[in-house]
Amino acid sequence: MKTQITELLNIEYPIFQGGMAWVAEHSLAGAVSKAGGLGIIAGANAPADVVRKEIQMAREITDKPIGVNVMLLSPYADEVAQVVVEEKIPVVTTGAGSPEKYISMWQEADVKFIPVVASVALAKRMERYGASAVIAEGCESGGHIGSHTTISLVPQVVDAVNIPVIAAGGIADGRGMAAAFMLGASAVQMGTRFLVADESIIHDNYKDRVIRAKDIDTEVTGMSHGHPVRQLRNKMTREYAKLEKEGASFEELEHLTLGALRKAVIEGNVDDGTLMAGQIAGLVKERMSCKDIIEEIMSDTKKLLGDKDFL
User: Fold this and answer.
1) What whole-number distance in Å separates Cα of residue 143 and Cα of residue 273?
2) pTM over 0.85
3) What is the pLDDT of residues 259-305, one digit of tens each?
4) How would you class 82 by CB atoms within 10 Å of its CB: exposed for 0-12, middle for 13-18, buried for 19 or more?
5) Alpha-carbon dihedral sign for residues 192, 193, 194, 200
6) What is the layout of strands, in order, in the sheet containing 143-144?
7) Helix 77-86 and helix 48-61: axis angle, to 10°?
8) Are 170 and 180 in contact (CB under 8 A)?
9) CB under 8 Å to 202, separation ≥6 — which residues?
């Protein structure tokens, strides 16, 4: 399937893998890119030398395009932005802020930057600064979220900008991808579906919780201090909700979640860890390779939309 995004980035399929902290490392990103999508390595809060090593290891898996997500609040963001240039990364996605200070450097190096946006206003601003595309992410997604749903956000962003739009949030199968294209998107980004990929490094306990999840099993914490996060319910979220209701300070709440994502991903602690996952976790029923995930989604999408291009 050819779209504006596949042509722009020279990838086979219009599917991005989300830049999930502690999850989107070389083995997952490399496998997604090898299968024809765009694998994305998460910069998160990692030092630049760690990100560089992840890029190099991903390139041992595939010679196809690989992206990097720069988390703009990271203390290492400046160095990681430079690594993107030095390693000749073709595309960078950004989150948690505005990438304006890096844009000139990336443009000079022919790095296409694609920011994640949660509003029309930010999408229009990023277009003015030269973004190659934007990722319109709805609140159905796992992790840090905005307030718009994907189905309301995507068409409004599509109407507001003249660059391609990637839909994210609440997409796990061919039905979701077909719906995104009907809303005007040129590609989709998925995170939760790739959590349980064979190549994903997250602990089996975490994967099992995603697979067992029902439609009502995610909740949003952090609303009280303006940093909402969607995750699967567990002992930690119940304690967090209790503290929020009691009016706990931002510092108290942050202390509760300190290192919680690592606990879930690496240690498999599904009681005290942060199990980030989107609302479509209830649709994820089995572990598969990245190749099989992408091929299944593309096959189902083509059955719904027909074997045509979206240029």
Assistant:
1) 13
2) yes
3) 899 999 999 999 999 999 999 999 999 999 999 999 999 999 999 99
4) middle
5) positive
6) 143-144, 229-232, 218-221
7) 30
8) no
9) 22, 23, 195, 264, 265
